[in-house]
Amino acid sequence: MRSARRIVVVANRLPVTRARGDRDGWEVSPGGLVTALHPIVRAREGAWVGWTGSADKSVRPFTHESISIRPVSLTDAEIRDYYHGFSNRTLWPLYHDAIRTPEFSARWWRCYHEVNRRFARAAAAAAREGDMVWVQDFHLQLVPSMLREARPDLRIGFFLHIPFPPEELFAWMPWRSEILRGLVGADVVGFQTFSDAQNFSRLARRFLDLEGTDTTLLVGRRKVHVGSFPISIDFDDFDSVARRPETTEAAAGIRRATGDRKLILCVDRLDYTKGIDLRLRTFEHMLDRGDVSASDAVLVQIAVPSRENVPDYADQRVEIERTVGRINGEFSAPGQVAVHYFRRNLPREQLVAYYRAADIMMVTPLRDGMNLVCKEFCASRPDGGGVLVLSEFAGAARQLRRALLVNPRDTDGTAAALVGALRMPRDDARQRMAILRMMVRRHDVHHWAHEFLEKLD
Ligand code: ADP
Ligand code: G6P
Fold this sequence. Notes:
alpha/beta, Rossmann fold
């Protein structure tokens, strides 16, 4: 049964962001959070509290596609300390298995605290009596408790889109108790996987001295539910775009333009957690060994620019571009470029055309809370074709068992899986895809929101 309560989403980013270099333009914000939540909030005509993505002084509330948009302003110093600093240089690497070394700065932490207070105030002002407020992601972990203080009448949910680290890593955090205390202000604290939820419950019991189990914590007399809610996509939306004749034509055009070779597709935010450089090196190794050649296969990497002011992201871009150059210099032939690299944000229709054109989709993050790209690929294959090669370290691997699962750090193992995908008999590939599609269709984003909001209600 669908809840009648209105929902107010509170997320660092609004679903639309100031367009680059255009003070008056807006574009859809990048990343999985917005992809997943946008259709949910739109269907419920809810409100969305978030940042515009630039240092706007103050932007008035407005309505976008039936969503009441409530902008929160950040100064340049806050963008530096709260967003680039504590969110992207402390929390992001720490929560992703410390793939890069997290940096701990007391100034960034103070700013994170202040900005969380501002979001909590904005949420308290946007919520009407009886609303459900749904706080999102690692940027806003203190908001649930701050909001509860101001508005004890509200039902408050929190969902973390990225992994929650195990005890050995979370214990590094100098402000670990404060963060845990912030989170237990919610009535429901949701994670992508069961082990993320378990990590959190155990840490909350240890560092906050709470009573409880893996699924319920007692905070005074209040019960906090802890659970896993694997996020997903709007299956029907991708499926229907993929079925359009224009999409089929565009997919055929992409295949012609890449020389009708086996097309290996990779689509990611340009983030070091996505394993883009390692994947390219695996492909290079395969070309070198003669497992594949540029005359029979092409790798297309589409990467959307992300967090470019953070040094590790700038380094990752340089590393990727250097590797692409080296591979093409060594292995391309006239009219047969080994790697096509596009660093840009594609409109949904074009992205789906690429998904439809691909023989193989390679999604090989070193760590990922869920990963929506692999689910989008399955939803975009109503023709039943395509093989998915998926990292074990994406949350999605727990659901998409019929993908070819790989450890991206194991070059030979990943190469063997890719060769297996290139040679897979058609019937086997179609059978796998049918099961993957059924899984994504059943567990779509509406199912995810329904499960979470039912619990919260
Ligand atoms: P993350 O949340 O870490 O960005 P996900 O895989 O969960 O990773 O979500 C990424 C989202 O961004 C997906 O909806 C995907 O379609 C979108 N995306 C990634 N790369 C591009 C691109 N180059 N152009 C357009 N959309 C992209
Ligand atoms: C991931 C995070 C989101 C974030 C997105 C894009 O999906 O979980 O919270 O919005 O990446 O990153 P950005 O820093 O550009 O908002």
